[in-house]
Amino acid sequence: MLLALDAVQRAFGGVRAVDGASFMVGQGEIHGLIGPNGAGKTTLLNLVSGFLRPTSGSIKLADRRIDALPPHKIAVLGIGRTYQNIRLFPALAAMENVLVGEHLVRDAPLWKRLLLMRAARAEERSARAKALALLERVGLLARAGTPARDLSYGEQRRVEIARALASDPRVLLLDEPTAGMNASEVTSIANLIRQVAKEGHSVLLVEHNVQLVMDICHRITVLNFGKVIADGEPAAIAKDPAVIAAYLGSEP
Amino acid sequence: MGALEDFFLTYQSAIAFIGIDALLALSVYATLSCGQLSLANAGFMAIGAYTAALLTLHTRLPFAVTLIAGALAPAVIAVPLGLPVLRLRGVFLAIATIGFGEVVRLGLVNWDYTNGALGLVSIPQRARLWTIYLVLAIALYFFSRLRGSRMGYALEAIREDEAAARTMGIDTTAAKLSMFVLGAALAGLAGGLEAHFTFMVAPAGYDFSRAVDMLVYAVVGGATSYLGPPVGAAFLTLLPEVLRAIGSTVGLTPGPLRLFVSGAILLAVVLFLPNGIISFSARFGALTTRRERS
Fold this sequence. Notes:
The complex is a heterodimer. Chain A has helices at residues 41-48, 71-77, 94-101, 110-114, 118-137, 153-165, 183-198, 210-216, 234-239, 241-248; strands spanning 3-12, 15-25, 30-34, 56-61, 64-65, 79-81, 171-175, 202-206, 219-224, 227-232. By secondary structure, chain A is α/β, with parallel strands linked by helices.
């Protein structure tokens, strides 16, 4: 298994936002993470990406413990993410945002650029070409030069996905990638996620659009009050009484 | 030809101070470019000035070597200082770095070896205009190449959203520390150059107001590009001279009125050009297009 969480717990004071969660994500798998509001989904993504440390339990990426590492080191090991409340670099153009996302895969020492070496110029050209290709992939080539802050909400979400893909992550964490998008935009994001998984990236998808999750995920983990209440294939999850109770309330 | 020579002789010190102030403004820009407001650079400048001056007075080392030593000494000190203080943000970082500047200044006031508050005098004048502007040109070249590089984009990302930058794998602590150290080295260079131009160094020259002056140069010129800080330094260093010249031609008494006009211009720049003097054309362009549309 590529990403493995084992009895991960995170407490804020007396509140256990994530309470003993265990599940695994395989290579090339689209893994849905759903649950009612406040179930601990975003906290869990923050634990995996290193912005929070677990109170107890372990998180492993390809058998290596990552739960004590700072975010930038976790990124080096191959975890990329987007944010629920979009965090682009607002003053930078869409293309430049993606270019920053390429930070880890670029080999461009400053001294070569200072000495005006041809290798540096070639590297920059290919980095820009790659950024443009990623923008084309999310359908935003025409907006490449627009500052991120001037893009629409849906466009910003797509730039964020392109930026996260730019580092070629082994695991991509998507926090509500289709929030605020219309139906056709949702379809194109769903197709994009499927393609990304086919290329071998694993995707951990937090999403409120249950239909989308049921459609594209290979496995789904359901959280409620920080605990895993169900884990399995979409068809099984849809019938699971504990899941239905969590979403709709149980019969008295 | 004679006229040009006269001009340089008359305004030699004004031209030299513009170059030194431009270096100081760039030293503040180094940290501002990744969103860190540091006021430690007057302290770093003092360390650089004293290091270079002491080496010149007590050794036979060539000027270039003493200058480089004056850049390295504050850079070395910036590492252990930067590691803890760069954990602070915004105004807290500013306050901590003001504290550092005061420690340096008071340390020098109480250090007998450097004549305490009187400072060091009769430093040979080794800095020429071309030395100052050569150092400035090298610094400007560095910043021009930094912009648009992988490292340059990393710095912009940190300025825009530090947490998101870390998600991109950017070691934000290392990047911020590098720029803090670079700023210290530039301030030290400026200090060494100034010491060998004005013949003397004294603790009073590196007080809090000096730290604020550098920041004002950078902000008034425009901290969004490396060209802004030198423009701001030139503008604010020349402004009093120009006003003095205008005042004496018109027959106005210099003094309070000149300061008043100087302050008013500064206020106008901050109010109407929030991105600095270098944003003038962009802003003026925006105004004309808006008028065309309506």
